[in-house]
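Progress note, sequence design subtask.
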């Protein structure tokens, strides 16, 4: 399922500095603060993912719309931005504005910041190929780097290099999730559609792919790792892939599997090829179903994730999968409550802190059915304690599609796709 958004034309701004502006007292001496209201203009709007924190403490993120308005994107094709705390205020600066066409458009995955400061990311649309419709293309994989004379803080001083343009059809299309890099710098990810299977509708769109981009000199070569959709395989991998310590890759699919409610899968390297196995097929009942978020792999090889739907509260679930004697066991950690609507649970990955606590967001669970932020803390004997950290109400943001990230100060940062002063989404922090 794709979620559609409506937006209004608003005034633009290049740099926005916001001091503390909306504080809500919370339990455990926590405070929730909106630190940026997106306008939908030059600073972007409708952020559909969370933030990335770099080793230098700066934050990076994406906006699905906003930026340059042209014939490819009347609302702007989206952008990559940087956020820095200076003198107690937050400075949000666009680094690159997408143009559509052969350039990318509408980034959904988080920007990945390499140690040298270069950004690697994906754009859902643009790039050309067989796909028709918005921004003319099937999506791209790109890098961004500041020009030698740039300070890294000014619009237009970052250079884009498109590494790959998806062609649709058997090649894949619509890269939604985060990319991941191995130690050699090769890039891995998924596309939500495309591939070889004919089991998805409309006919010919494909059920999704997993892929690798490897570099030899200045040339990047794409390799198909897996095409989804045949038999009881998963369908539509929305999020990216995650490595374990043995070099296996794990991910999730939105639908497919035995009950058509989604899967968790493993990709195992076998020389020059990869094989797939289904770790778990969801039923859509108490175990949940319909996965948008990816899989977190801990140091012991245990898998953690979330579903957007199902569970006893119909608001999605948080789960663990661990392997005993070669078999994977499913454990329910938490059923989330939606209060009525379906597919309101987590859309992006969970994040874990040094104490083993998990944090996540829900799209439209919570007291106001506008989304929430939650914490799950291990409390011994395999049990977990659930704490609601914030329920969104609209002016403070709504419908958080993005993940939580833990800043170097230990606080929790995230985005919402809507709400805020201009209904274009916000950036927020929960101070602990």
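Output:
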């Amino acid at each position: 399922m794709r979620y559609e958004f409506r937006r209004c034309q608003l005034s633009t701004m290049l740099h926005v500095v916001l001091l503390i502006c909306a504080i809500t007292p919370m339990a455990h001496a926590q405070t929730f603060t909106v630190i940026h209201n997106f306008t939908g203009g030059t600073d972007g709007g409708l952020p559909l993912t969370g933030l990335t924190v770099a080793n230098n403490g700066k934050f990076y993120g994406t906006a699905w719309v906003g930026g340059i308005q042209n014939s490819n994107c009347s609302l702007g094709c989206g952008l990559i931005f940087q956020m820095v705390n200076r003198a107690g205020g937050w400075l949000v600066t666009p680094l690159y504005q997408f143009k559509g066409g052969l350039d990318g458009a509408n980034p959904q995955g988080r920007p990945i910041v390499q140690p040298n400061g270069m950004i690697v990311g994906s754009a859902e649309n643009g790039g050309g190929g067989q796909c028709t419709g918005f921004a003319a293309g099937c999506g791209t994989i790109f890098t961004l780097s500041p020009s030698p004379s740039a300070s890294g803080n000014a619009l237009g001083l970052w250079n884009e290099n498109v590494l790959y343009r998806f062609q649709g059809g058997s090649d894949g299309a619509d890269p939604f999730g985060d990319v991941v890099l191995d130690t050699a710098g090769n890039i891995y990810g998924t596309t939500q559609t495309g591939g070889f299977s004919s089991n998805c509708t409309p006919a010919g769109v494909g059920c999704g792919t997993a892929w690798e981009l490897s570099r030899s000199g200045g040339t990047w070569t794409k390799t198909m790792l897996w095409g989804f959709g045949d038999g009881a395989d998963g369908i539509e991998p929305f999020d990216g892939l995650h490595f374990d310590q043995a070099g296996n890759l794990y991910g999730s699919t939105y639908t497919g599997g035995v009950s058509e409610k989604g899967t968790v899968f493993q990709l195992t390297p076998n020389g020059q090829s990869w094989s797939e196995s289904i770790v778990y097929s969801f039923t859509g009942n108490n175990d949940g179903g319909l996965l948008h978020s990816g899989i977190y792999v801990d140091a012991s090889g245990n898998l953690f994730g979330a579903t957007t739907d199902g569970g006893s509260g119909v608001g999605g679930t948080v789960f663990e999968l661990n392997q005993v004697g070669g078999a994977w066991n499913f454990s329910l950690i938490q059923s989330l409550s939606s209060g009525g609507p379906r597919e309101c649970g987590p859309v992006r990955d969970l994040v874990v802190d040094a104490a083993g606590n998990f944090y996540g967001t829900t799209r439209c669970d919570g007291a106001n059915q506008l989304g929430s932020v939650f914490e799950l803390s291990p409390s011994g004997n395999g049990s977990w304690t659930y704490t609601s950290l914030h329920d969104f109400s609209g002016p403070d943001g709504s419908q958080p599609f993005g993940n939580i990230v833990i800043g170097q100060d230990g606080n929790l940062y995230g985005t919402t796709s809507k709400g805020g002063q201009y209904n274009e989404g916000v950036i927020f922090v929960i101070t602990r």
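Residues 1-27 have pLDDT under 50 and may be disordered. Work on this subtask will continue into the next period as scheduled.
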